[in-house]
Specification:
By secondary structure, the protein is an alpha+beta fold. The protein has seven helices and 31 strands. A six-stranded mixed β-sheet has the order 2-16-15-18-13-10, with no helix packed on it. Strand 4 and strand 5 form a beta hairpin. The longest helix is centred in the C-terminal third of the chain and has 22 residues. The protein is globular, with a radius of gyration of 23 Å.
């Protein structure tokens, strides 16, 4: 098993070939037709909230930056790339669904064939795509949980595990994450020098990789809010543009944490350090570590499966805070039908369209086809978003053309010769009505899971990776074409370095790393720089060194009698590659 990784965390993907407890089902030959329920209309968003400018309700002493961060070494920022300043909303279809016609009352929405099940395959594809988008600089918002972590810890601003430094005020907002009647959240003024922090320190139940998410209400007075994630590799800095996105869980990537409570290598710090001219305040509301197990009981008990294995209706429900309508996940149909409409409605809820343009965000969904051919198609629905046909065409074209060029080997079978790259039907996940026409959206039907050759490619991580990279290229080309000014560059991530090796000196505490430049595959581009990451446990990586466009580097002055692990990433204008294999 290999880990497919967003840097500096490690986003695990697992190909599940069959699902325990699955009742026999016949694949639906028309996988998603008539998903749109015209009576199930989105709920209007609540109005913007601007915090009062009065004196803070509670004040703390000035922040001592040196002492706050003395025990951590900044390990990385999210790299700039082709999708920096863009938001990619995403989801994958199906998953375990409550249905009283079954005993116990839970079922997968699709059957098993050719050693795979679409409900799980879609989730695998989503994880690959999220990792590539993150490494291309995008803000990632997913409506199925990312990674595979069945533990969860959620800290709200009222939790005793949150510590405060600097000047913070209590909000009186009616829209927030937390218990009814609790302090909604706290806010502090942005500053050119850090002067206020909120540190969220979870008690991690079991050491491992945890996806981390933040919940912050969006608004006109927010900006590019800084989150410092402290993990076993150091500290990673991520900025989320809360003047553009909020009101739900936004993804901060995945990190390795030790068990227990330790603010030095297991916490998230919300900082008031200004990043851009946007906004005047930072918001401290809720932070989530891990995804947890399904908790929805609609009669007959909970599913017994991880949250990420359930359909999107239930994760959207878990996103909601006080002041948000249940109709965002609870529509007029069954739980399966609600899973078609919930992602679009929640996208519109989390997206603050007043900031930026429709070309600053996009929505991508993943499915696989149940029958009738081979290859990928981009879907167009009956009530499309403005440029949906172009987005569907580019995504479908990139997947098919690139995977044909990829060839067999390395794929187990040659890709389809399909030249018709779109298909039009009724697809609730991408209908303009649910999305309030705030951005363009498409579903990528990545292949045909009833076809033995397509199914074998989807079971292969190389195939999933190539499909994800190709979809990313389609998104970049789309935004480049439709953006009138400040268009993203036509720049694509490099491949990871290969043949990495490490050799230690026996006398001077140096370790020399060497690697081979990657070959360009399926439209990827050459590196202009390489970044070395270091670890002492082999799980949490940080302490990056950008070494330029070279293929060897000596790390010097290392203390003796310590185990060291390294991995190398390639970088260019498109963003940062997945990391190399680990050497130690």
């Amino acid at each position: 098993m290999s880990r497919f990784q967003c840097l500096p965390g490690l986003g695990l993907t697992v190909l599940l070939l069959s699902a325990p407890g699955l009742s026999a089902q016949t694949p639906d030959p028309d996988d998603h037709t008539s998903q749109f329920n015209p009576q199930d209309v989105p709920t209007p968003q609540s109005p913007d909230w601007t915090e009062p400018s009065g004196a803070p309700t509670q004040s703390f002493g000035p922040v001592q930056t040196q002492s706050l961060f003395a025990n951590t070494a900044p390990s990385a920022q999210q790299q700039r790339g082709a999708l920096s300043d863009k938001i990619v909303y995403m989801n994958s279809g199906h998953g375990w669904t409550h249905d009283t016609n079954y005993s116990p009352p839970w079922r997968l929405q699709r059957g098993t064939g050719n050693l795979m099940n679409e409900d799980y395959g879609n989730l695998d594809q989503l994880n690959f795509f999220a990792s590539y988008c993150f490494n291309a600089g995008a803000t990632v918002v997913s409506f199925r949980p990312l990674g595979h972590q069945t533990n969860e810890v959620i800290l709200d601003n009222t939790s005793p595990a949150v510590t405060w430094a600097g000047s913070w005020s209590d909000s009186t907002s009616t829209l927030y994450y937390g218990a009814p009647g609790a302090t909604p959240y706290r806010f502090a003024s942005m500053a050119a020098s850090e002067s206020a922090t909120a540190t969220y320190t979870p008690t991690i139940p079991v050491a491992g990789y945890y996806p981390v998410y933040c919940w912050t209400r969006h608004g006109s007075d927010r900006g590019d809010q800084l989150y410092r994630i402290r993990h076993t590799g150091g500290e990673t800095q991520i900025r989320i543009p809360h003047h553009m996105v909020g009101n739900g869980w936004a993804y901060l990537c995945e990190y390795y944490f030790n068990a227990g409570a330790n603010s030095a290598n297991g916490s998230v710090v919300i900082s008031n350090l200004r990043g851009t001219a946007a906004g005047s305040v930072v918001i401290a509301d809720a932070v989530r570590f891990g995804n947890g197990m399904g908790s929805v009981d609609q009669g007959g008990g909970v599913s017994g499966y991880p949250r990420e294995d359930e359909n999107m209706r239930y994760w959207v429900r878990a996103n909601l805070g006080q002041g948000q309508a249940a109709s965002l996940y609870d529509g007029s149909g069954t739980d399966e039908q609600d899973s078609w409409s919930a992602p679009g409605k929640m996208t519109a809820e989390m997206n603050r369209e007043a900031a930026g343009t429709t070309n600053d965000r996009v929505h991508i969904s993943f499915h696989s086809n149940a029958g009738g051919g081979r290859g990928a198609v981009g879907l167009i629905t009956g009530t499309p978003t403005e440029n949906q046909a172009l987005l569907a065409q580019l995504c479908g074209q990139e997947v098919n053309v690139n995977l044909r060029a990829y060839g067999s080997p390395p794929l187990e079978f040659a890709w389809s010769t399909r030249t018709s790259y779109t298909y039009t039907g009724g697809y609730g996940e991408i209908t303009g009505s649910y999305l309030n026409y705030e951005m363009d959206a498409t579903i990528v039907e990545v292949a045909f899971h009833d076809d033995a050759s397509d199914a074998a490619i989807m079971r292969d991580p190389k195939g999933r990776s190539a499909i994800a990279r190709s979809t990313l290229h389609g998104v970049i080309k789309f935004l480049n074409q439709i953006t009138a000014s400040n268009a993203p560059p036509l720049a694509f991530l490099p491949e990871p370095p290969v043949n990495v090796r490490a050799q230690a000196s026996s006398t001077n505490g140096n370790i020399t790393l060497a690697w081979t430049a990657p070959a360009n595959l399926i439209g990827s581009q050459s590196p202009t720089n390489y970044i070395i990451y270091r670890s002492t446990n082999g799980y949490g990586f940080g302490n990056p060194v950008a070494v330029g466009n070279v293929t060897s580097f000596t790390v010097s002055n290392l203390p003796p009698n310590v185990d060291y692990y390294f991995r190398v990433a390639a970088h260019n204008l498109g963003g940062e590659s997945m990391p190399s294999e680990v050497v130690g």
